[in-house]
Amino acid sequence: MIKCSYLSLSPFEVDAKSGVNANNQLYKRMSIHYESRYALGPTETKHLDTTTLRQHFLIETVFTDGEIQLVYTHYDRYIAGGAKPVDKPLRLETIDALKAPYFLERRELGIINVGGNGRVTVDGTVYTLGFKEALYVGKGSEEVVFSSDDRANPAKFYLSSAPAHHAYPTKKVTKADAEVVELGSLETANHRVINKLLVAGVVDTCQLQMGMTELKAGSVWNTMPAHTHDRRMEVYFYFEVPEGQSVSHFMGQPQETRHIWMQNEQAVISPPWSVHAGAGTSNYTFIWGMAGENMDYGDMDGCAITELK
Fold first, then answer.
1. How far apart are CA 285 and CA 123, in angstroms?
2. Which Gene Ontology MF annotations are present (predicted)?
């Protein structure tokens, strides 16, 4: 295995390009770039200004040509990011935060391709992933390699990873395999289709869940009415946001909400105590990923729309 050096910022430095603030750390390893972000509670969060709120919760850069971008959050030790192989394959190597000889020694991994056709090779077995197709990779898989079929239209592998206690088989999941739920209506601007891709009943996982919600034309609201689930955290990745349009993501306690304006192919971390909803200036698609002690999709604490503040 190639030994690589790390570049780290002291806890008191701020990197303007990455947006890492005084409570986070930035590391770079060959083709892997990752940040470590510490968790904040609701009391601290409600006092943050716009810039600091974004530094803690917004993942501004998910895809970079020829690199793997990762954010390690201390909310349930969840990792979110993206791999965009262009000229050559990218290998998912371990990062220092894991203190492990390989990335998935004690973790599971969920992958959804949001770009051109590509391949994920897991311990020598090749899985082809087209647009919006998913792959679950179980604990103990030692080598994961990402590649694109066409450098002019590279694959974009959106990644989610959580700690795992058991080794479940690697499995590809397409939209045809997903559990599909249609919710909302055009009248309330939240008509959407939820594709549950990596969830119980579709694939065995330890705690990781992933899915993809597609909003119908004319609808802009997601996850409305809003809810919280104190037993698990979540990350939203917004994509298929048309050029010139944006999404305003809402977070915070139901009576103490905040918003973060987001662009295409950006992600946002949602703590267990926070609502997670959004409204776009157009319809869009987003991938949700969850981890925690509870895997019941319907176990949530609803918030009436009229009670939000």
1. 31
2. 4-deoxy-L-threo-5-hexosulose-uronate ketol-isomerase activity; zinc ion binding
Q: Which amino acid is at 85?
A: P
Q: What is the pLDDT of residues 74-93, one digit of tens each?
A: 999 999 999 999 999 999 99
Q: How much is the pTM? A: 0.89
| Residue 74 marked as a ligand binder | no
| Residue 166, annotated as binding a ligand | no
Terminal-residue alpha carbon distance, the chain: 52
CATH number of 24-307: 2.60.120.10
Q: Does a cis peptide bond (omega within 30 degrees of 0) precede residue 225?
A: yes
234 annotated ligand binder: yes
